[in-house]
Each structure stands twice: as C-alpha cells, then as structure tokens.
Write a structure and sequence with these properties.
By secondary structure, the chain is α+β, with helices and mostly antiparallel strands. Helices cover 21% and strands 17% of the residues. The longest helix is centred in the first third of the chain and has 32 residues.
C-alpha cells in the first residue's frame, strides 16, 4: 500500500529532474554554438573591415577637380586724351638777335714826359705801357722800374749836340728780370741806341700780376736823350 502511494511522487520527481537536465543541456549547447565575440563596449558602433586578396586591387580612380569657370575680365579701351591744337602763341618763336655794336676801346692815357738822358736824373721817365700776360690777357699798367739808374749820355753825342728817342722792348719774367731787351725803334744815332740797351739790360722790374699771381710780361720802354741848356 505504501509503495503504491509513493510511486506517483517518484515519477513526478523524475520527470522534473529530467526536464531540468534537458534544459541545462540545451542552454549549454546554445552557448557553445555562438561564435566568439571580441570585447566591444556597449553603446559603441562597430567597425567593418573587408579583406581583399592581393593582386585584386582595382586601380584608384583619379580625382578630377571640378573645373572652375574662368572669368575673363573685359578691359575697356582707355580713353584717348585729345590734345588741343596748338595756337600760334604756343608755337616756338625764333627771334633773331641783332648784332651788338662793338665796344670802343678805352681811351689811351697821354704819356708823361720822356726821360731826358742827361745822366743827372736818378730815375728814368715812366710811360703807361700795355703788359701782355702769358695767357693772352691784356691789362693796362705802369711798369715799376724799382729806381733803376738811367742810361749815361754818350760823350760823343754830347759834344756833337745829338739828341733822340729810343724805344726798347723788354721781355720780363715772373721774377721781374729782363730775359731779353730789343730795339723797337731807333733814335737814328747808334751811340744813343747802344747806351739805352746797355742800361735797360741791367734793370729790375716789378713783375706784372693777374690778381695775386705774378706772370711774365712784355714792356715797351721809351728813353729820350735831350741836352739841357746850360745857360
């Protein structure tokens, strides 16, 4: 009797245990069949990677930039400035200059009395002379004879009462020394000419000047021989 009461309980327990084992085995099988999953954080998007065999890569399509429309700037022609027609007043005028009248040379000063070669005067007579400078510059000046002794009156001309005027030309250097003395005009008496030449060759002159510069010059020297009345 007791065995009969217990048979239904054992049968139910066996069925429950068998169901639990079947459920457990099914769950284990499902777990084993799932593919392995790599650790991915929940909520992040997955990354898909396509693997392609080597040699099968297609050539990359070159990127062609979009052609930009070329803008052509239309340049307007620059306005041409019209010049006004020249009037007769604007044209160059050629004026012919009239020749200026030549300036008249300055008047020549009268020469002072010529030296009388009587042998008694300590200084010779002076005359306004034209000094010709080295570069052709002309200037009017009075030569300075520096108290040179006058020429001696020749005794033969004194006895014969001979008189006359000798004109000499002296080339004077920048130091005032006569380089040469020549006869420019004779007195007509040889002894008078020689006496004048001999005296002037020993003279010393004050050199001509252009500004503060001493220059060589040419001097004309008139010497007059005249006897004085001893009465």
């Amino acid at each position: 009797m007791l065995l009969r009461l217990l048979q239904p309980s054992y049968s139910k327990a066996f069925l429950v245990a068998a169901g639990l084992h079947a459920t457990l085995l099914f769950a284990v099988g499902v777990v084993l069949k799932q593919p392995p999953q790599f650790g991915m954080e929940f909520g992040r998007s997955s990354i898909e990677v396509d693997l392609v065999a080597a040699g099968m890569d297609a050539p990359p399509t070159p990127l062609v930039p979009n052609p930009r429309p070329t803008t052509v700037e239309e340049r307007l022609p620059e306005p041409v400035e019209e010049l006004p027609e020249p009037t007769p007043e604007d044209l160059p005028q050629f004026v012919e200059e009239r020749p200026r009248p030549s300036e008249s040379p300055p008047p020549v000063r009268p020469a002072p009395p010529l030296h009388r070669g009587d042998g008694s005067s300590p200084t010779p007579g002076r005359d306004a002379t034209t000094i010709r400078a080295a570069r052709g510059a002309m200037s009017e000046a009075k030569p300075d004879y520096l108290r040179n002794p006058p020429p001696a009156y020749p005794e033969s001309a004194r006895r014969l009462g001979q008189e006359g005027t000798v004109l000499l030309t002296a080339e004077v250097n920048a130091e005032g020394r006569p380089l040469s003395v020549t006869l420019k005009r004779s007195a007509g008496i040889r002894c008078l000419d020689e006496a004048a030449l001999a005296a002037v060759r020993k003279w010393r002159f004050s050199p001509a000047r252009i500004g503060s510069l001493q220059v060589a010059s040419r001097v004309d020297i008139p010497i007059r021989f005249q006897l004085q009345d001893s009465r």
